[in-house]
Amino acid sequence: MSENSSVADHLNDFNTVVNMLASVTIEFDEEVRALLILCSLPESWNSLVMA
Prior knowledge:
Blueprint: H1 7-23, H2 30-40
Organism: Taxus chinensis
Protein name: Retrovirus-related Pol polyprotein from transposon TNT 1-94
Pfam families: Retrotran_gag_2
C-alpha cells in the first residue's frame, strides 16, 4: 500500500487478488489473509499494527 492511497482502495485491490487466486484454486484461510493485509500496510502505520 502506498502512503497516499486509501485503506478502502488497498482492501479492494487485496480482495481482487485473493479472488483471482481463489478462481485458480489457490486459497488462504482468514488468519493468513489477515497477516498478509497487516504486512502490506505502509511503514507509517507501524504504530497501529498490533498482532
